[in-house]
Amino acid sequence: xxxxxxxxxxxxxxxxxxxxxxxxxxxxxxxxxxxxxxxxxxxxxxxxxxxxxxxxxxxxxxxxxxxxxxxxxxxxxxxxxxxxxxxxxxxxxxxxxxxxxxxxxxxxxxxxxxxxxxxxxxxxxxxxxxxxxxxxxxxxxxxxxxxxxxxxxxxxxxxxxxxxxxxxxxxxxxxxxxxxxxxxxxxxxxxxxxxxxxxxxxxxxxxxxxxxxxxxxxxxxxxxxxxxxxxxxxxxxxxxxxxxxxxxxxxxxxxxxxxxxxxxxxxxxxxxxxxxxxxxxxxxxxxxxxxxxxxxxxxxxxxxxxxxxxxxxxxxxxxxxxxxxxxxxxxxxxxxxxxxxxxxxxxxxxxxxxxxxxxxxxxxxxxxxxxxxxxxxxxxxxxxxxxxxxxxxxxxxxxxxxxxxxxxxxxxxxxxxxxxxxxxxxxxxxxxxxxxxxxxxxxxxxxxxxxxxxxxxxxxxxxxxxxxxxxxxxxxxxxxxxxxxxxxxxxxxxxxxxxxxxxxxxxxxxxxxxxxxxxxxxxxxxxxxxxxxxxxxxxxxxxxxxxxxxxxxxxxxxxxxxxxxxxxxxxxxxxxxxxxxx
Length: 582
Known about the structure:
This protein has helices at about 25-30, 45-50, 90-95, 100-110, 150-160, 175-190, 195-205, 220-225, 225-235, 240-260, 265-290, 295-310, 315-330, 340-355, 365-375, 380-385, 395-400, 405-415, 425-435, 450-475, 485-500, 510-520, 525-535, 545-560, 570-575. Helix 20 packs antiparallel against helix 21 (about 485-500) and helix 20 (about 450-475) packs across helix 22 (about 510-520). The longest helix has 26 residues, at about 450-475. Among the domains are: about 15-85, Irregular (CD2-Gal4), CATH 4.10.240; about 285-295 and about 315-575. Helices cover about 55% and strands about 0% of the residues. The model is unreliable at about 60-90 and about 115-175 (pLDDT under 50). With about 575 residues, it is mainly alpha-helical.
């Protein structure tokens, strides 16, 4: 058999040409796999072929839902939309990290300055400044390395130890959080479930911002409340008041997360209802036991329970919590814990009472609300210039823009309007002069940055003009057509606030918008009111749509009977709507 000839290589086969890497080229050439001449700002190859040059800047690429990054999707690199995983509508309406926060973080990373107590280390994984290694014998930080929560602890700690919604300042940003949170965070992570960690993270990064109006960094619903719940979770003896506060946070976060979906998510609502019932159960238990050492946690739980009714758009239940909270405070007989956090919580609770009861004129609740305004002693202590109440400890101004004279005026208008005796002319003149002197348009509001001071001033002005409307309608019974100038002024500041809070999770109190919108007569003013409501509707607060519907009904009735004085309180009673306007 003849021997087979050795096969010869095909002369026509071409040797593969080794191509130059295109790691330094423009993004257009890199996606096409061709060599780029790296001409800036646009390469000559793209210009010659009449293609849009995508430039040379650093491009961020997010992992997809399966955890696959840029390398896993190279076969789809010609599809430009696959390069970045976009957020869904709910995330876009309720962002966790705003642009100001991200810019401040990037600026700090580029800075050579290092915080006190931080050190720069040379070696792998040492791009950023880091704190000295914690000793193994430091108490409260030992965790079982085999714990199933270990994988989640890093991400949860990162998300809970800072507040993304606020401007970042290395020197002044949450000094309380740095020291108090870190001590109890890891023990909390070791005993909490994944669902609870997610809800607490959502509260810290998003939901707690709904509780104040100005986006001030000293948010007590983070700075005061979070250390309370973390300390309780890390303790071997968990007090019922602290447990009530923790479950109240979970319930609020779950309700808010549910309301952000369209339609509301049933799974989140079920989770919220479970924690809401648990919070009520622990709160009832704490009221029956000795509450020593739990004062702050119990009062914070009551504030959150009333706020849950706002998020979930429930009626009447908030009155039960406020009445129970007031009875509990009075039962302490002056034994309240006068710490800084306790003083802040007392002011917040008292503010909710004043705003909540201020709209009870001509309703079935007028008698009980009148007794509150007549018997209230805290307002005198808070507003008196000679009292022991420190002026620097008044927090409602920086959190909501409510100045002390305006809060006192709202209180007095409500007290006189619901009094069994008709106010005298002297009372009205004194109150009006007080209001004229309380205009905050030229007042300075000390703030960490000028933008925050601007927001606070707009809030303060909106409260002032809403209080003027409340005064004219409640005490003088002025027809709406005579106060349209006040409506327009207040609406201007409310619109300015929404423009400055664009794409943020800030919401705050609804009272100024409600009082103003109810009296709008002009079609243009009504349209602008609805635009403000439309912006608020994307923040997951169920009461917003209820209040909007109530206002539309008030307008409808007034248009049908222009000569009749249609009162907002009567319309709300007819519709059986009793929403807390905070």
